[in-house]
Amino acid sequence: MFGAPSHGLGSLPNELLFEVLHDLPNDALCQLSLVSKKICRVAQEVLHRSPELSVSQYWEEEKGTWMEDGRLANLLRTFINRPDLAKVVQRLTLSPIDRSVRDRSSMMRDIPPETAAVLGSSRINVTEPAIVGMILQIVPNLQELSLQATILDKSSYKHRYDEKKYTPDLISDMFGDDTLVKWKDYFYDFESAQIAGLAGLKKLRLATGELHWSWCELPKLEVLHVDRVCRVELYDVPTTKTSDSILELILERDTNFLFEGYESNQIRNLLSKFTSLTTLTLRISNYLVYCPYHHPSSRKEAFGFGSFLGGIAEEEQCDEFLSHLLDTAQTLRHLEILVAEDEHEDGSFLQLLAPVASFQLPRLTHLKVPSEMLIRCNSDYITKTEGVAKRLLPSTLTRLEITYPWMTTADLLADLSRDRDLFAALEEVVIHGSSVRGNANEQLFEQQPFWSELEGNGINVAWKD
């Protein structure tokens, strides 16, 4: 007699079962892991492909204090006990707080005695950033990493844009001598590029107090995302230091960087070191935090928010901050300049800047910018637009995207349609109309002659809300 046929998820091959479970939420995966040993193994692998741990603290109302939730320590213990799960980790999102771990019991439970002895030693200060460093040492196939490292103190309620909230030197906290000297034999090497979880890293997002050049030297890193709270200070980096692996940079800054000064020079220095950069996304925020070290007259406990328009002189050129890109001109293919826009942001500072004289980027194929950078949005300034597209835009463009459209943008696009022979590579023009700024709408634009002229020349024109 043959046994009863097997049905359900348990009958599927592991490869197919993985595909079935891949898109399920974590809660469902936890429930399914209780069904059988086979499903448990696959569900655990899916769960550990992309662990995501937010700030590891919670407020205990009865005790009136912040409490640890122990998730970082538990994750480390899991990877120590289950190297097979550590090997499947491809993406990590971690938010350590720069503080000592008081309760180490969950971290030491069921791990090898020699490792437990080190972790439990009172002579060793185990911090959350140090735990992150240990985790990174034992996840050899990690490809994407997102780190937000903050400081827990009496000012922990600072706004997320306040740079004083973030750990100033995460590299030292994770791999520095104070931590490393006692952990070296157990967890990591001295060279960050030799750390297992960083050796093959391809994408990195940092929300820390400072961008340390060591991150940029990771051998396989292709995409670097620098949060606006992350200071760029390369004063101690030799001019000969460069990176040829980073292909894409996402750089978030506030409007202060638009002006000549220390930060502006540091950004130029950073960009000059990326010798193979092909894609740059610049996200500009005009939402600044008012705090005592910026505004001494404020009350010490007062933290407010506001937009910064002061200091921008009428007729200042957009070319001032485009000059940051000169060292990447020969490699850059894709450029996006995005202006943050929500209930607190104010993008009207763009109207105080004169448009770009010319995008001197000879290999650019994709450009996405606000309309104010291309042409005057104020009708009082309208001048002759014929020939402006030829002067302004590279002939290599295949896709042009314009945000915050004003009706004067139609003049630029009309000029573009007249120079079809020059812009023979252009395939698509996209106008983004979902904005509180601008005075144009889809109906008005579709009625303009340039729309049918561009489409008649084989260029797709699209309006996106």
Key words describing this protein structure:
globular; 12-stranded parallel β-sheet; alpha/beta; disordered N terminus; 18 helices; two-stranded antiparallel sheet; 465 residues
Alpha carbon gap, first and last residue: 65 Å
The fraction of residues in strands falls at 15-25%
Number of helices: 18
Overall mean pLDDT: 75
Helix content: 25-40%
Number of domains: 3
Could you give a short description of this structure?
It contains 18 helices and 20 strands. The chain has 465 residues and is α/β, with parallel strands linked by helices.
Question: How is this structure best described in words?
Answer:
This is F-box domain-containing protein. InterPro entries: F-box-like_dom_sf, F-box_dom, LRR_dom_sf. With 465 residues, the chain is of the alpha/beta class. It has three domains: 13-49, no CATH class; 50-246, no CATH class; 365-464, no CATH class. Helices cover 27% and strands 18% of the residues. It is built from 18 helices and 20 strands. The chain has helices at residues 14-21, 26-32, 37-47, 71-81, 83-86, 105-108, 113-119, 128-137, 170-175, 177-183, 196-199, 213-216, 262-272, 319-322, 388-392, 409-418, 442-446, 449-456; strands at 52-53, 57-60, 65-68, 91-94, 144-148, 203-207, 210-211, 223-226, 231-232, 248-254, 279-285, 287-290, 304-307, 316-317, 334-339, 353-354, 366-370, 399-403, 428-432, 460-464. Strands 1-4-5-6-8-10-11-15-17-18-19-20 form a twelve-stranded parallel beta sheet. A two-stranded antiparallel ribbon has the order 2-3. Helix 1 (14-21) packs across helix 3 (37-47). The N and C termini lie far apart (65 Å). The model is unreliable at 1-6, 179-190 and 291-315 (pLDDT under 50).
